[in-house]
Amino acid sequence: MKRSKAVDTISTYQNWIEREIHKQKYGNEPNSLYDPIRYLMALGGKRLRPMLTMLSYNLFQSNVRKIVPYAVAVEAFHNFTLMHDDIMDKAPVRRGEPTVHEKWNSNTAILSGDVMLVKVYDMFLSLSSDKLKRVLQAFNQCAAEVCEGQQWDMEFEQFEIVSERQYINMIKLKTAVLLGFSLELGGILGDASEADCRTLCRVGINIGIGFQLMDDLLDAYADPKKFGKQVGGDIIANKKTFLLIKALERAGGRQRSNLRKWIAAKKFRKPEKILAVKELYDALDIPALTKKKVRQFFEKGFVAMGTLQCRDDRSEMLRLYLEKLIARQS
């Protein structure tokens, strides 16, 4: 497939996603319950997950437009997790705008998130009976794992030491399994074989881990105007990201005591802490180490993608989309 045609097709899919999101009303009254959902869904974002579902379906079937509502259901679930995550993380900004609990309040954000999850199930109900059970089984497993990942993330705050293996497993659950489900959903709806559906899930998980590791890096090093979230938030909160885990492994002597000092500090100026910790990361070559790990997971995803039993021109469009997204993230 020519790159220009792939770009045009992806642009068309993007328009379909946005129209479907705009069309979804979620509910009417009270406005204070449903306005936060409409607000969050309208904030934009990459729409990565619904796009993956549509590109995955396109590997096996041509009538992609018919599955747009199910792809948008995945985006609604993703935004539900963001609404609740932002409360737990006390995050002030999402996509460059106030988070729901900041704009309204935490209680409203909790309830709006709850009803948002209910609406996801409503969006799947129009599936044919032969697809519904399989989709809901995969979705329920994914949703439970996302919650497990979030719980591990919170529990890690109390751990003195978190290993790289523990951290990778946590981000796999919290973030990557939803990308895996997004691709698997497209396969299920497109009548792909069981083997291809499993492969699609594996592709999404590896790509998702890579994206989360890159997000960890961007949290510390991104341009605030482009990032859409508070830069340095993980450093301020002592989040045990891949960067901090590897820095604690590598640091010795004065570097280690300096890093521990900033981790233990109760009172500090935020910009000063961010700058000091980033200087330690730079000295320990943490950014390069993180980028290397990111590339390893992306490569695993692309290798798995090459084993799919589908037309090469269609898998090429999925590959082009992911490569473009990776380049933009990097």
How many DSSP H or I helices?
Answer: 16
Q: Please state the second-level CATH architecture.
A: Orthogonal Bundle
Q: Report the end-to-end length measured between terminal Cα atoms.
A: 25 Å
What would the CATH topology be? Answer: Farnesyl Diphosphate Synthase
CATH superfamily: Farnesyl Diphosphate Synthase
Apparent shape: globular
Percent range for helical residues? over 70%
Strand order of the largest sheet: 1-2
Estimated structural class? mainly alpha
Beta-strand content bin: under 5%
Low-confidence blocks of residues:
none
Written as H for each helix and E for each strand, in order along the chain, the element string is HHHHEEHHHHHHHHHHHH
Question: The biggest beta sheet, please?
Answer: 2 strands, antiparallel
The figure for the number of domains is 1
Reading off the top of the CATH hierarchy, the class is best stated as Mainly Alpha
Count of DSSP strands: 2
How would you state the average pLDDT, rounded? 93
